[in-house]
Amino acid sequence: MNTVNVELGDRSYPILIGERLLHQADLVRQHVPARDILIVSNTTVAPLYMEPLAKAFAGGRVVEAILTDGEAHKTLATVSRVLDVLVANRFGRDCVVVALGGGVVGDMAGFAASCYQRGVAFVQVPTTLLAQVDSSVGGKTGVNHPGGKNLIGAFHQPSAVLADTSTLGSLPDRELRAGLAEVIKYGLICDAPFFSWLEEYLDELLAVDPAALAHVIQRSCEIKAEIVGRDEREQGDRALLNLGHTFGHAAESATHYTRWLHGEAIGAGLLMAAAMSAECGFIDRTDVERVQRLLERTGLPVRIEGVSPEVALEHMRIDKKVQHGRMRLVLLRAIGDACVTADYPEPALQRTLSDYFG
Ligand SMILES: NC(=O)c1ccc[n+]([C@@H]2O[C@H](COP(=O)([O-])OP(=O)(O)OC[C@H]3O[C@@H](n4cnc5c(N)ncnc54)[C@H](O)[C@@H]3O)[C@@H](O)[C@H]2O)c1
Ligand SMILES: [Zn+2]
């Protein structure tokens, strides 16, 4: 087992990464030190992993809230149901909310924990690759609103993250590949050797090799922890984590979140960010080709068909809440060196959109 620490003063916490962590009752209890425990999960994950997790708390009071699976249910109404369960069981401020599932469950359980009695402890037990490398770390919690994705939420850091790599064995292949988009993102942002490592060991990752997966989860968490430790509330460097996301979010929202998984849209977005960086003269075309090759091998889309460049630009402006001014974008100065900038030639953006959308 490996540990990565997120350093946030008195809100610091460990991310534990290893095989079959869920089955290690002593370890689980050590990180969930409460008598009253609410485990939030969903209809897909609970039948697979609820039993071993709940068993660790024999002697305590364990209540389960099993939510309907799906992003469509990431709403205030669902969080309200979770809060109802806490109230109905008269849980006090010393309870712990445990999120067992992917990013959807984690975001909602975390949000419920952030507002129940003005905030109770919560522990993340992420079961998708995306959740293990991204959403369970960093303290962003929340739900969607008909007016936009993740519009309602709070910063609420977990007190521990238990990433059991064995749970990825049951993850659908498409979800695994989508999660890898965020992993590739970390290499592009700040770690060229890690990007090269991914090129070398992609086949092992796609074959769900435990050692290869443990390595990428650890390195990804180290990078995210480091950036979040510097800028918890996204006033500066945390924006680097949005590499590929302004393009990707445009693809997602223009297609009403139905056509691509988040990671798939981000895959295409990463290539667009790289291509635009080459248009700006920041990186070489050969770097763009490297990014494209890795994304293709991962089975991620490298262009977004069916969305025009004009519509994409409109969605990018909404995403960035920009009307007339210039959008700040995350671009690459090299593979492994991203920057946030509004200083790029407008035609470079136009070219990129017309090359990759439509
Ligand atoms: N808080 C953050 O910082 C942050 C960051 C990135 C994404 N997110 C959010 O995360 C969500 C996406 O998360 P996700 O990609 O994990 O999606 P998800 O939670 O919907 O999980 C994907 C699918 O896999 C299933 N699943 C989960 N674990 C499984 C397992 N071990 N075996 C079999 N099936 C399993 C789920 O039930 C679901 O059907 C989005 O709502 C996004 O907004 C949040
Ligand atoms: Zn993302």
Describe the fold and architecture.
This protein is an alpha/beta fold and 358 residues long. The chain has helices at residues 25-31, 46-55, 76-88, 103-115, 129-135, 173-190, 192-206, 210-230, 245-254, 262-279, 285-298, 309-319, 346-356; strands at residues 2-6, 13-18, 36-42, 61-67, 96-101, 121-126, 140-145, 148-155, 160-164, 329-334, 337-341. Helix content is 47%, strand content 19%. A seven-stranded mixed sheet has the order 1-2-9-6-5-3-4, with helices on both faces. The longest helix is centred in the middle third of the chain and has 21 residues, at 210-230.
Provide a concise account of the structure shown.
The protein has 358 residues and is of the alpha/beta class. Helices cover 47% and strands 19% of the residues.
Q: What percent strand? A: 15-25%
Q: SSE string, helix = H, strand = E? A: EEHEHEHEHEHEEEHHHHHHHEEH
Number of strands: 11
- The shape is globular
Determine the N-to-C terminus distance.
46 Å
What is the helix tally?
A: 13
Radius of gyration: 20 Å
Structural class: alpha/beta
Estimate the helix proportion, in percent: 40-55%
Listed once per kind, the bound small molecules are: nicotinamide-adenine-dinucleotide, zinc ion
Query: How does the major sheet shape up?
Result: 7 strands, mixed
Catalogue the unreliable spans. Answer: none
Instruction: State mean pLDDT (0 to 100 scale).
Output: 96
Oligomer: single chain
Main-sheet strand order equals 1-2-9-6-5-3-4
